[in-house]
């Protein structure tokens, strides 16, 4: 294999990994299949690409292809690739658990909502249910009713701190 084709395969492999990590599984499968075809199956890089390809197969819904590829990779000459293939095969062949519907949260399809901003309602106080709906008004506060007098707490606290410091200094000299 030439250095140029190896570099092309690495580039396609990186593109496939990036597509997989971005959730574009079909594109990831295409790129990883191209990279796998350019590399020797028994090479370390070829095994790494095939592990990613098996994962991309599973993510794109092609579980049978992923299982078949992992079956082949179990006999890979590199121990790390073989071990990863066995682990992935174990996961792929595990029985699928059925989740009760109470555990699931249905996410509504917001694409079906009309694009009319006039119909959006904002609930100001959901506990009060009145027949008439009023728009939220800003609440103004009469400043003559607010207690703005200093309660002398800060002054008392500063005097107490000062006396404590003076007492500690006095103790230090005697």
TrEMBL record:
Keyword Transmembrane helix set for record: yes
Taxonomic lineage: Bacteria, Bacillati, Cyanobacteriota, Cyanophyceae, Nostocales
Membrane-spanning ranges: 153-173
Full protein name: Tetratricopeptide repeat protein
UniProt KW Transmembrane helix keyword: yes
TPR repeat segments: 9-42
Pfam family, one: TPR_19
Keywords linked to the UniProt accession: Membrane, TPR repeat, Transmembrane, Transmembrane helix
Superkingdom per UniProt: Bacteria
């Amino acid at each position: 294999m030439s250095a140029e084709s190896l570099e092309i395969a690495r580039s396609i492999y990186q593109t496939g990994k990036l597509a997989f990590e971005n959730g574009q599984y079909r594109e990831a499968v295409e790129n990883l299949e191209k990279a796998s075809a350019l590399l020797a199956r028994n090479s370390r890089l070829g095994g790494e690409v095939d592990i990613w390809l098996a994962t991309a197969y599973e993510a794109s819904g092609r579980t049978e292809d992923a299982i078949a590829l992992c079956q082949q990779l179990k006999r890979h000459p590199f121990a790390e690739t073989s071990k990863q293939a066995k682990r992935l095969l174990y996961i792929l062949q595990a029985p699928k658990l059925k989740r009760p519907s109470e555990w699931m949260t249905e996410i509504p399809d917001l694409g079906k909502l009309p694009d009319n901003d006039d119909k959006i309602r904002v609930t100001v106080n959901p506990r009060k249910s009145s027949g008439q709906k009023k728009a939220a008004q800003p609440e103004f506060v009469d400043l003559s009713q607010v207690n703005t007098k200093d309660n002398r707490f800060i002054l008392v606290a500063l005097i107490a701190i000062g006396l404590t410091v003076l007492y500690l200094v006095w103790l230090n000299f005697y």
